[in-house]
Amino acid sequence: MARTTVDNGRGSQPRSTASSMLVHIAGLFFGFFALVFVYLASNDDFTKKNAANALNWHLPMSVVAIVVVMLGVWVSEPAGLAMGVSIAIATVCFSLIAGVKAYRGHAWKYPVVPQLL
Predict the structure, then answer these.
(1) Among the four 15, 37, 91, 114, which has the fewest Cβ within 10 Å?
(2) Percent of the chain clearing pLDDT 90 (strictly above)
(3) Pair 37, 10: CB distance under 8 Å
(4) Main localisation, per the record (predicted)?
(5) E-assigned strands of the chain?
(6) Which bin fits 9, alpha (ψ -120 to 50), beta or left (φ > 0)?
(7) Would you list the domain boundaries of the chain?
């Protein structure tokens, strides 16, 4: 895996940027279950920080997706579909942006979500 040396103010430390990038991509395919596993099992602080950032997005969006499905079933199917598609597009875009940033050595925080971890 690619390791990048980044000066973080406390001296240079190697960071596993490839595994940090894969955390964000894994969130797209496996949801927050993979992110929780990586967050708990990782020894690398940079990978753990990226997993926490991804979890901060995927946990609230999972709850929102459930609410949108319920609204779509009970209120208006076209409105539920439109909201669901917009959530999916935002999740894909933000995960790809975060993955690229992680590969470049930056832990990007997803916008508009609370910092839960």
Answers:
(1) 114
(2) 42
(3) no
(4) membrane
(5) 3-7, 12-16
(6) left
(7) 3-103
